[in-house]
Specification:
Chain lengths: 496, 166
């Protein structure tokens, strides 16, 4: 009964309701504008909410997250430019539909399927997370260490890029997180004699730098890409169309939740896997895949929104982010004095049910905002980058400054932004850096606790990974992830 | 994003720089507490830096093996680097950004951001000065009201302007 009370909190308080609605609205538009990612939006906006009560901050973030993941599909359909990585697969069939004059139908179908996926994800979160948090109490420090390493590895492995570059980026994030005084011994680490450095580097400044500034600089290479204007009409899909695609959307929502709940894997990977599933399983699509098949829209859109609920599961139960956005949210929870993990779920279940309530609410707002105001929207996503990019940077600077009212954070943001630009240009992912920064302190602490419990004996430390069934299971997953990147495995998996 | 079979201009130098940086960080991590204890403050940073060194070395070796992109072979490396990685717009925009960040605490948010918006919109190709000026002013007004009043963010007022206004 109390859970229901917390669940309905955001529904009954007008200000919270307003925050969820405006977060969803802003998320849709931010996610839709090419170059503005949901991670960037959450990173920038989160810095403004530090002084807010935690419920208000979470209400806004839930809306932005769900709205942003969905919003990416809009520009994928209208402009053939995915607004977010999770909408890459959507462009494959969405844009051909728009070219045939079916942009409205594509957006309507996408909206409804995203909402269905969103509900599946939230339902699984509500059912699985409380049970998992009890189970998570069994996790020893070495298990947390393994899970964190696995999370960083997964980002590198599943995104299809270079695993070595992904691991490098993750380790760099871990190292950035260790700057400052050691929390256990107060010894200075990487401070170079500077008193200011003893406080460490603000991970919010780093996030804004890597996701905001770096992305803006990369966008400078596509300044003059001219969008093709689309005719948008007939948005709301018929019930028969929704019913026809319901089985596929439920199946791909399942894929989305599972992939989303893997530490480090997010909506972008879920969407690509769901698209692949649709291609393999749908024998008679409305049109061939890649030429405007409705199934090619249904699968990735249901999956990427279902992944949102999935990504909250490891965050709430283990304190390990499901993707880059939940990594940012974990950072925000820390700043609000909360420590995500099994004890948070057990000691403050109200927070969990409040989050579930705001996600459901955001999903409903998604349906409303998704099916209205499309014509205005079509104009907005065409905002010239010459106007848009400088404004993002001004917002980024304000966001970084707002952390401590200190210009040094703005300089860090700029430095990380330029570094992030070159990393991105040369094929390094910045997601693992942020995961590394968030997981770094947990990994450092877990490593030392595990080593102390093994009486400082390296052999015993290693042997415990094999004697505990849970550790062995995570270690096996970790090794499989590594093996899956070897050429031998890839030759074995590819058809002869 | 599958691994590329060609390398971009400057990619090899960049990966070598990352390797050198990683080695420097490894030395710094060793300097924290050396091998004093297996659970010392420096042990985990040392392990992380070691991972960086190993992976960066792997990336250097791989990058060395792949050939430069065919479109870059016809021109000199600096020219190809300037065209593909650091075009003029990137350099000027980044300089404008650095100037904005440096002027932010001196001139305050409103003036420095306004100057940055005006300059950078022009740099990025928006030639309508009056429109840019009006849009910059309007958007800054919105930012100021939302963040200063709603989000309670104290925006920098500028040390050079103390006593002049505000």
């Amino acid at each position: 009964m109390q859970s229901l009370e917390y669940f309905l909190l955001a529904w009954t308080q007008p200000y919270l309701l307003f925050l969820v609605a405006s977060g969803t609205f802003a998320g849709i538009y931010i996610g839709a504008i090419p170059g503005l990612s949901v991670t960037m939006a959450v990173s920038i906006l989160i810095s403004f909410t530090f002084k807010w009560p935690v419920n208000e901050a979470l209400a806004l973030i839930s809306g932005i997250y769900l709205g942003g993941v969905y919003g990416g599909s809009r520009s994928a359909i209208l402009l053939n430019i995915p607004g977010a990585p999770s909408a890459i697969a959507t462009a494959l069939d969405g844009y051909p539909m728009a070219q045939r004059g079916e942009a409205g139908a594509a957006i309507g179908l996408t909206t409804v399927m995203s909402v269905i996926g969103g509900f599946v994800g939230i339902l699984v979160l509500a059912v699985a997370a409380p049970a998992l948090s009890e189970f998570a109490l069994m996790f020893a420090p070495r298990d947390y260490l393994l899970l964190a390493i696995w999370g960083i590895l997964l980002v590198g492995a599943l995104s299809g890029g270079s695993l070595a570059k992904g691991i490098f980026a993750g380790a760099l994030g871990v190292l950035i997180a260790s700057v400052g005084l050691d929390p256990m011994t107060a010894e200075p680490r990487f401070t170079f004699g500077s008193v200011q450095m003893t406080a460490g580097i603000s991970y919010v400044a780093a996030m804004i730098g890597f996701f905001g500034v770096a992305e803006v600089l990369v966008q400078l290479h596509q300044l003059h890409a001219k969008p093709v204007k689309q005719n948008v009409s007939k948005i709301i899909p018929s019930w028969s169309l929704v019913r026809k695609h319901l089985p596929l959307s439920l199946r791909t929502s399942g894929i989305g939740v599972v992939v989303g709940s893997l530490p480090g894997a997010g909506g972008d990977i879920a969407a690509l896997m769901a698209y692949d599933h649709a291609k393999r399983s749908v024998k008679n699509p409305t049109r061939p895949f890649g030429q405007g098949a409705q199934e090619g829209l249904v699968a990735p859109e249901a999956a990427n929104n279902a992944a949102v609920g999935g990504a909250y599961i490891p965050m709430m139960t283990l304190g390990i982010p499901g993707d880059a956005v939940t990594a940012v949210i974990i950072g925000a929870l820390y700043i609000h004095g909360l420590k995500p993990g099994p004890m948070l779920m057990i000691e403050t279940p109200q927070l969990f049910w409040f989050i579930v309530g705001t996600l459901v609410l955001a999903n409903l707002f998604l349906l409303v905002f998704g099916l209205t105001g499309i014509k205005l929207f079509a104009k907005l996503v065409e905002t010239p980058k010459a106007i848009l990019l400088p404004m993002i940077l001004v917002l980024s600077a304000v966001g970084a400054y707002a952390i401590n009212n200190n210009p040094v954070d703005v300089y860090w943001m700029l430095g990380f932004g330029v570094l992030g630009y070159f990393l991105k240009m040369y094929g390094y992912q910045v997601g693992p850096i942020i995961l590394g920064m968030i997981l770094g302190p947990l990994m450092d602490r877990s490593y030392r606790q595990a080593m102390i419990s093994a009486e400082g004996k390296p052999l015993q430390f290693v042997s415990e990974f094999f004697t505990s069934p849970l550790s062995l299971a995570i270690l096996s997953a970790l090794i499989l992830t590594l093996l899956s990147q070897t050429s031998v495995w890839q030759r074995w998996r590819s058809p002869a | 994003m599958p691994e590329k079979n060609t390398r971009l201009p400057g990619e090899l130098s960049f990966t070598v720089l990352l390797l050198v940086g990683s080695l420097f960080l490894l030395a710094q991590a060793f300097g924290i507490s050396g091998f004093e204890s297996i659970t010392s403050a420096g042990m985990f940073p040392m392990l992380s830096a070691l991972v960086m060194v190993v992976t960066a070395a792997g990336v250097v070796l791989r990058t060395r093996r792949v050939a430069p992109d065919a479109s870059d072979v016809a021109e000199s490396l600096p020219k190809a680097f300037a065209r593909r990685i650091v075009p003029a717009v990137f350099i000027w925009f980044t300089l404008a950004l650095v100037a904005f960040m440096l002027l932010l605490p001196k001139l305050g948010f409103v003036i420095s951001a306004y100057l940055f918006l005006l300059l950078s919109m022009r740099l990025l190709g928006s030639t309508r000065w009056v429109f840019n000026a009006a849009l910059s002013a309007a958007s800054l007004a919105v930012v100021y009201v939302i963040f200063q009043m709603v989000f309670s963010v104290i925006l920098p007022k500028g040390t050079w302007l103390v006593g002049v206004w505000l």
